[in-house]
Structure formats: structure tokens, C-alpha cells
Amino acid sequence: MKKYYYFLLLLLLTPAFSKAQVHNAENFNVGDEIHYMVCTPPDSFAYGGMAVIWDFHAVQDSGNGQHTTWVLADTTPASGNIILSPTPVLNAAGSKVHKTSTQSTLVMAAAPPAISTYNAGVLLIDRNLTYGLMDSNSYTSTVTALTNTLTGAGTSKIEVDGSGTLKTPAGTFNNVLRVKRTSDNIDSIPGNTIRNYQVSYLWYDSSHTAPLFRVDSLYRVGTGFLANVSDTSSTSQYLQALFPAGLNNLNNNSIQAATAHLDDKGIVLNAKLETGAAYVISVFTINGQAVYSNTFTAQAGLQHINLNRVLPAGNYVITVSGINKQDAPTVIRVAKE
């Protein structure tokens, strides 16, 4: 009887676990802006399952303050495509993503002088993710670099293999799904081949269209004259902020030496400002919602800003812009306990 009870309990619990879902993955819009901080890789991350706690809060920011900023812009000729480009946009560098109502696929990757195109597209992420989801496809590819054109084919696969809680330097996120994404592609011209095998681990929740944390690795091996581009590398990044279209654009040079403390009394700002000059200070939630904006006149030393409200605990992004100044805004990430 006891065995039957445990079996019945398992049947009752299994549907509840299987309903872990994310409904907003990679649902980018033109004008969105995504900010990542490059960081040290976690000690361990390649484990999945249900009710997992991925604790990456102690990863260290890159020592040189290396940020990644993506600006999403219109593109032609195919409707439904958007360009993900690092700012500033140089020589049309970036990735062209084709969007449908359910899925996004990579159809072009431009890193001048090389341009890669993928027919049918490399799977990125389904719009709606559910724990246990698996999908795969095949595609053909063309790589153009200077006077050389390589052709080939590959396969891509996504697998939602984990659900639980994620901790990063930007905060703690519940109801997170982890996706393992792979792409294996071989291109060649007579006597020369190149293989790109990419593995990415990406963590999503329903409140953000971009992954909260990502680990991307590349194994590239070439033969013939392509042997000199062989490479093995990996990067880790965590999401700092996602600014929806319509918010003031912030460029990659906007990170300046500044700190801030946020508590129930307001903001204490330590930044290099011109005494007597007028500035605008704004506060955003980590997903880009504006919660405060006002002007102030800089004093010598620390700036004390009274918000006239108490913000809930969480992670915020503070921007400071000089009025009638051409300088890029100062951007500061803070956590309020």
C-alpha cells in the first residue's frame, strides 16, 4: 500500500514539474538595446535537471570593464528579419535573425571581411520554451571572405534541459529554464575545409527577452590555408540591462568610473561631475522600466538624491546625463537590499 501511495504521489507531482515554461525568449523588437557584462566562467555549469539552483553570483566582472552591447535595428530585404549589431555599427557587422511567431533563426553573421549565410537558418531559440523541449534542423551555408567562397552544411539543435533558480551579479531569478544550443557546420573549397562546432548554455526567464546568463564556446579547426584560423575559445556574460525600444539609447562608451548606493533614503552618487552643472538622473529596473527621473545641480563631492519614494528591493540601473552636453551617459548598476 505504501509503494502504491508513493507511485500515486509521483504521478500527481510530475505534471506540475513538467509545466515549467518561458514565454518571451528571444522576442526582440527593433530599437531594443541589450547590455551584457563579460565575466569569469562559473566553476561548474553543465548540469541540468529540475529544481536546480545555479549560483553564479560570485563570478568576477572582466578586469578591463569589457561590456557587450547589442542594438537591434531594421534590415532588408526580408520582412521579419532584424539585425543584432554591436555598437557602433561598423561595416554592417552583426547577425541577421529571422523572426516568426514561434521561433528565431540565424540567417546571416557578418564579421567583415567574412560574411556567413545560412539557408533555412541556424536554430536559435523557440519563442515559448518548456522544460524537456528538443528541436533540431539541417541547413546549408555559404561563407564569403575577400575573394574566397566556401560552401557547406550543418546541423543545429536546442534542448531545454534544466529548470530552477539562477543567481548572477545582477540578481536572483526564479522560474528559469536552461537551454543547451549546438551548431555543427563544415564549409569547404577544394583542398581546404573549416569546421565550426559551437555549444552555448543559456538561461532564460519570462521577464526578459534575452538570456540572463550565457556561456558560449567555439571549437574551430581548419585544413589547408584555413588551418591558421583554427581556434578554441569560450566566453561568459551576464545580462545587466535590457532597454526596450523607446528608451534613450545608451552606447558602449557610456560606462564611466562612477559608483552609487541606493537605499530607502535615496541615492548617494559618487561620480566625476562638473560642479554647478545641471544633470538628469534616471532609475530603471533591470528589465528597462523607468521608475524615476529628475534633474539636479551637481555639488562638490557626493551627490545626495531624494527619490521621494521607497523602491522595492532588487537590481536597478542608474543613468546620469549632462543637460546640453554631448557626452555619453554614465551607467551604473546597483542592488537595493
Question: What's the topology here?
Answer:
Layout: H1 2-18, E1 21-22, E2 33-39, E3 49-55, E4 67-74, E5 81-86, E6 94-99, E7 103-111, E8 114-126, E9 129-130, E10 134-145, E11 148-168, E12 171-189, E13 192-204, E14 213-222, E15 231-243, E16 258-263, E17 266-271, E18 278-285, E19 290-297, E20 303-305, E21 314-322, E22 330-336
Parallel strand pairs: 3-11
Antiparallel strand pairs: 1-9, 2-4, 2-15, 4-5, 5-6, 6-7, 7-8, 8-10, 10-11, 11-12, 12-13, 13-14, 14-15, 16-17, 17-20, 18-19, 18-21, 21-22
* Rg result: 23 Å
What is the C-level CATH assignment of the largest domain?
Mainly Beta
Helicity level: under 10%
CATH architectural designation of the largest domain: Beta Barrel
Task: Output the CATH topology of the largest domain.
Answer: YmcC-like fold
- Integer tally of domains: 2
The secondary-structure element order is HEEEEEEEEEEEEEEEEEEEEEE
Which consecutive residue ranges, at least 5 long each, have pLDDT under 50?
1-18, 87-91, 246-256
* Secondary structure category: mainly beta
Number of helical segments with 4 or more residues:
1
Order of strands in the sheet with most strands: 2-4-5-6-7-8-10-11-12-13-14-15
Strand content: over 45%
First and last CA, distance = 49 Å
- Could you describe the largest sheet, including whether it forms a barrel? 12 strands, antiparallel, barrel
The gross shape turns out to be globular
User: Please, what is the oligomeric state?
Assistant: single chain
What is the overall pLDDT average? 80
Give me the count of strands: 22
